[in-house]
Design a protein that fits this description.
- Two copies of one chain form a homodimer.
- Chain A is mostly helical.
- Chain A has helices at about 20-40, 50-55, 60, 70-80, 85-90, 100-115, 120-130, 135-150, 165-185, 200-210.
- The radius of gyration of chain A is 22 Å and the shape is elongated.
- At the A-B interface, helix 7, helix 8, helix 9 and helix 10 of A face helix 6, helix 7, helix 8 and helix 9 of B.
- Chain B binds a DNA duplex (16 and 16 nucleotides) through helix 1.
Chain lengths: ~220, ~220
Amino acid sequence: MFFSEAKIKNERSFIKIEMPTKAERTCRAILEAAYELFMKQGYHATSMRQIAQRAGLALGAIYNHFPSKQKIFEAILLEKHPYKQILPLMATAGGETVEEWVRSVAEALIAELNHRPDFLKLMLIEIVEFNGKHVPHLVRKIAPQALPAFARMRTYYRDLRPIHPAVLLRSFIGLFFSYYVTDMFIRHTPLAKLAPKDSFDVFVDIYLHGISKEPA
Amino acid sequence: MFFSEAKIKNERSFIKIEMPTKAERTCRAILEAAYELFMKQGYHATSMRQIAQRAGLALGAIYNHFPSKQKIFEAILLEKHPYKQILPLMATAGGETVEEWVRSVAEALIAELNHRPDFLKLMLIEIVEFNGKHVPHLVRKIAPQALPAFARMRTYYRDLRPIHPAVLLRSFIGLFFSYYVTDMFIRHTPLAKLAPKDSFDVFVDIYLHGISKEPA
DNA sequence: CCTACCGATCGGTAGG
DNA sequence: CCTACCGATCGGTAGG
């Protein structure tokens, strides 16, 4: 929709270089400005005039690139979702045992989420201010790619109890996403004592072995 | 702030009866109207005029009860938080074994959250539209009551691996809150197949025993 | 890409 | 002097 790959016209060069047109650069400036403001203020509290000012444009100029405020949000939602990074990662992650695989995938998930501290907020804006009306589209686009990627876990079938792959996926995402969320909220508060250094290891261990003592 | 307990003046009666004044009833109508609109539209997308209309008042009348729109939100946030119901429940829940206790507390948590389908959204509005500026106050008020309540779990110490109580609490809330959230989103979509009927049982089982096979 | 605007609506407050 | 409201309007801003 927004970024065509331009090539340098110089005949002496065989190298393709991303050479954004003026329109593409303006488009990018609008998306960046809007993204920063949405994260700070939410969607409805952010005005088109704020976006225009931060992008270095007049208000009316935005409408040369996006037909509405909502379309800007939708473009950001698709662009910032980390599934493009996370799904390939799950498919390629190695590990001799299920422990190693769970650990490496969970670490990668947390790392990717930490690398995008604002992604969570983007999803919350979608839920709160749009009543989640873009979610079905998003899930329909991602779920078919996620389930096969996670089914890879079944290659460790000999180490696993017979649990439905979808429940494996839900409990995995739920447990580690909650680790991420609680860690994020707690990290810079007096409640940091609720987050012992080895919390991540314990979450992995709980996912694999539960909280009960093994029968001796 | 809003509800004084009025008593019937009838001398022949010793029974105290909640007899809201007109002001209290108006106050209640404003809070209810604002709550419903915030849940549907979020905070910034809801106008004081909408609140007034739904409460059956003129716009200006609201300001006899609340000094600003934001103060209305703050009152709702404190009033609707389920910790008042959930914490006593965790303290009194019975169970001979840790399995029974976890199951009954998790069931009660899910039931309470299902009984308040909008509580989650209220917290999300706080995060998205207020940047969580009321959260520290909320956590400071609730955490000291939650940790002791959950420490009760340690009475089953002989059945548990040595895990820090705070991590027990975080993983418990995280896992079952995520069950609730995913269940809520999935229930009425074509993705319902991701939610086998026994999902709750499996979540309990994963929390207690993990996903690994027990060593034979 | 800008200036200049529109119909409407925003949160909050005036006097009575 | 209080409450609970009214009709009207304040200075600014909304998406387009």
